[in-house]
Amino acid sequence: MLMRSEPFTEVNRIAQQLFGVPATGTWSRPTAMPADAYRNGDEFVIAFDLPGVDADAIDIDVERNVLTVRAERRPIDLGEQATVQLSERPLGVFSRQLFLGDALDTDHIDAAYDNGVLVVRIPIAEKAKPRKISVAGRERTEQKVITG
To answer: Into which family does the record put it (predicted)?
Structure first.
């Protein structure tokens, strides 16, 4: 049996029950989907924390430069004899939207999921990459005045 020794956890549980959050063992309101984003060379990388989510329960869409990630954390099968003693892991559908700049090539997005982390890689568009611009010089011609 699991002992409850954190008073604030118990207060939070009671507050959730009073304000209409579903009871233990059912779907609960999901919490935020934490993410890190950074530029690495010629690509933009976003890493989302999705622990306990199956890869087939992740959906990624891009529409008009808006990246939407949806993931569903499903309940585990506890069996008929199980009695829940503690349930703090949120279940349900998580969703996160990020607005992407025009400098990204949204036609070539790559995503990989490993150890509860979804990594989305978006290449920098060719038009946004730094490039050298040659400067053309104007030849100076001298005008000679002929007197005579």
So the answer is: Belongs to the small heat shock protein (HSP20) family.
Which residues, 6 or more positions from 102, have their beta carbon under 8 angstroms from its beta carbon? 65, 125, 128
The H-or-E segment that residue 117 falls in is strand 117-123
- Specify the CATH architecture of the domain 7-77+87-126: Sandwich (2.60)
pTM for this entry: 0.67
Burial annotation 55-92 (CB, 10 A radius, 16+ → b, else e)? eebbeeebeeeebebebbbeeeeeeeeeeeeeeeeebb
| Spatial contact of 87 and 24, defined as CB atoms under 8 Å apart | yes
Cα 88 to Cα 26: distance, rounded to the nearest angstrom: 11
Q: Which amino acid, residue 144?
A: K
Ramachandran bin of 65, using left for φ above 0, alpha for ψ from -120 to 50, beta for the remaining angles? left
- Summarised one tens digit per residue, pLDDT across range 12-55 is 656 655 555 544 444 445 456 899 999 999 999 999 999 989 99
